[in-house]
Write a structure and sequence with these properties.
Strand content: 35-45%
Number of helices: 3
Number of strands: 13
Shape: elongated
Mean pLDDT: 94
Radius of gyration: 19 Å
Largest sheet: 6 strands, mixed
Distance between the termini: 45 Å
Structural class: mainly beta
Length: 207
């Protein structure tokens, strides 16, 4: 790497966010460093891979128009390392979003490292109305964020510019619930250190 990276800033960048080639004949790549993400190039194209205490992800970034001379990348997707979230937590989330309507609601699903279980936490609300909810962004020290949720009251589910700014840091699934007094609408995405990936339905994480 040092032979062609002449600027130390590039060496720092490649060290923090490396790109690897998937071996065709030898052993597959080891898991990414905990909490970090990396890019991997394989036969099919490029994926982003990341692992933390609760999530493992392999997410497509770009598909190659030709087969590349590397190993297969494997199935893309999101895996909960501690198994699916119990469905009663989803039922509670739906109930709270409906009960708060027409105001918005916010909550986190976390993994409790002490109790070894999933938990729904409602943050301390600073201000709330029919078009906003702001809260103290402080998760307990023993908890790891899995799912960051809020509702839009009577309005449709979507990610706002405010959401884009607040989701610039962290590694978790984000979800929005809209139309909370009728047939609900939903928006979901995977957030990996400021990179956003659609194509995930947060409700699929429950069983």
């Amino acid at each position: 790497m040092d032979t062609y990276l002449t600027d130390p800033r590039d060496r720092i960048l490649f060290g923090e966010t490396p790109t690897y080639l998937q071996p065709l004949f030898g052993d597959k790549l080891p898991a990414p460093a905990l909490g970090k993400h990396r890019f991997v190039m394989g036969q099919e194209g490029v994926v982003l891979e990341a692992v933390n205490e609760v999530l493992e992800v392999r997410l497509p970034v770009a598909r190659s128009i030709i087969p590349l001379p590397y190993g297969a990348l494997g199935e893309p997707g999101i895996r909960l390392r501690n198994g699916p979230i119990p469905r009663p937590i989803l039922e509670t989330i739906e109930y709270k979003a409906t009960s708060a309507c027409p105001n918005e609601w916010a909550g986190w699903v976390t993994w409790d490292n002490e109790q070894q279980c999933y938990e729904l936490i409602e943050p301390t609300i600073l201000s709330v109305g029919s078009g906003h909810v702001s809260y103290r962004n402080r998760i307990p020290r023993h908890a790891v964020l899995v799912l960051d949720l809020h509702s839009h009251g009577l309005h449709p589910a979507y990610f706002s510019e405010t959401d884009d700014l607040s989701d610039q840091q962290g590694f978790y699934v984000a979800g929005v619930i809209g139309h909370c007094q009728g047939p609900k609408s939903y928006a979901s995405r995977m957030n990996v250190n400021g990179h956003f990936f659609d194509g995930v339905d947060f409700r699929s994480l429950f069983a």
